Amino acid sequence: MTTTASPSPHSSHLSPAFPGRAPWGTASKLRAWQQAAMESYLQAQPRDFLAVATPGAGKTTFALTLASWLLHHHVVQQVTVVAPTEHLKTQWADAAARIGIRLDPEYSAGPVGRDYHGVAVTYAGIGVRPMLHRNRCEQRKTLVILDEIHHAGDSRSWGEACLEAFEPATRRLALTGTPFRSDTNPIPFVTYAEGTDGVRRSVADYTYGYGNALADGVVRPVIFLSYSGSMRWRTKAGDEVAARLGEPMTKDATSQAWRTALDPKGEWMPAVLGAADRRLDEVRRSVPDAGGLVIATDQDSARAYAKLLRGISGTAPTVVLSDDGGASGRIEEFRQSQDRWLVAVRMVSEGVDVPRLAVGVYATTISTPLFFAQAVGRFVRSRRRGETASVFLPTIPSLLGFAHELELERDHVLDKPKRGNEEEDPYGPEADLLKEAEREQDEPDGEQDQLPFEALESEAVFDRVMYDGAEFGMQAHPGSEEEQDYLGIPGLLEPDQVRMLLHKRQQRQIAHSRRKPDDEADLLELPAERRPVLSHKEMMELRRELNSLVGAYAHQSGKPHGVIHTELRRACGGPPTAEATAGQLRQRVAKVKEWATRMR
């Protein structure tokens, strides 16, 4: 059926209660991009339509408004929504109900109840019974909404099942809010066009990127707070390795340093969680219901982080460990409460809407642009003018790169660029990481494939702030006035005010650092003309000597390495070992020798 009717009729039959919970689901008045996308669709009346819109922009609103219009004008008779998770299919059904579209999220087989306009299912469910849904599409004119369409390329079976199930559908609306897959699995119902380089890329019918959404005030600006620090671990061969987050390292060393930082038994995670909690305190001064989210790698880490947060904040966080009915209930309770913290493993990274989330801690080793964009997307949904989002990161080069490229719009590349055999394929590592990022909950987590190691100790150092493509700040100790300058930025500010305030804080930090006596300043804070001339090799030897003495004293005293390093810093002053000056290192060497002598 073809029609040239204006999109305005869709609003005439919306429920009066429709705007009630608009911030996380749907709204009675369309945003400019949603109206433009509607007009584009209604003018072309395509069978397939791909809408790419940044997380938090309102894809659900657009899709359900379009579904309402198509049902109202008898273009379709029923709706099928396909979502990545059980929680999301329920969320879609709830959002649809608020505009009078009734979807059954519990549908499994047989005829759909007469009270329903359609069903909400998962990609996994389609993979199990594709013919069931094909028969439904053949019997009645159907609109299929494919949420986060890149999941249809997760496996050959899912893609083939979607093709088989929805090939007869009258209309198909594909949605995504994040960069497409970097593997070459074709995504069903997505159009590809060959570029001048001979590479086929996905073609969106309508695109609304983060940059445009930020300019329109649809999403929050994101402040990234990066933390570095010294890490020490023992390899399988028994070698002890010390390194600093952010320093050039091999891929394996970076991975082990990163995992050492995220070890809840070290000092890095408690320091970063404490900083994030202080940031949440500041945000809640102006946004009383603001909440925080820690995204963990696995269930054991999530439980340990929750225990740390309980000690830091004085209240027990909500913990979500798996994508089941109980988890959905806990997320919904947290969404409607004013509780401070939510700790979750993976499932909250995509599509789960808790608009009051304003502070995040990226405490996972997943390092794909897809997962990172999905994770950051949990914090960008704007509810009122001036809200900002704050995300805490380890100083890992790939993550910092993703943060800088937040506004970059990407298409799905179906072919790998042709290049000489002597050049490394840049798609290879990311493709492997994507398999990890998009793995189902019941699949192995890949930890068994990583090189075995033992985390020994970690220390956190505030590194920098990234905002709107620029970097601010110098390294500072956790708990210092310099760190608090950045943690204390008000929670309600216009984007230009955030940039101006960060500039002022940076200038104040630089001026304060220059007034410090040399024996109190971090080596990296000192101007070049005041730094002692000391070779990198000499500094490494000093750190190695200190670590060796600490190891011997740990064996003698029975105290953990991290505790001894903390006691040395308390007794001698100064920053963590990785940032200490030569004089400070020598002072600590002398002090630990003194302690060891006393025990003999």
- How many strands, what sense, and barrel or not for the largest sheet? 8 strands, mixed
Q: What spatial order of strands do you see in the largest sheet? A: 14-15-13-16-17-10-19-20
Identify the overall geometry. elongated
Low-confidence stretches: 1-27, 409-449, 521-534
Task: Tell me roughly what share of residues is in helical segments.
Answer: 25-40%
* Cα radius of gyration in angstroms: 26 Å
Residue fraction in strands: 15-25%
Tell me the number of helical segments per DSSP (H or I, 4 or more residues long). Answer: 19
Count of DSSP strands: 20
Return the structural class.
Answer: alpha/beta
Distance between the termini: 92 Å
Give the overall pLDDT as a whole number: 79
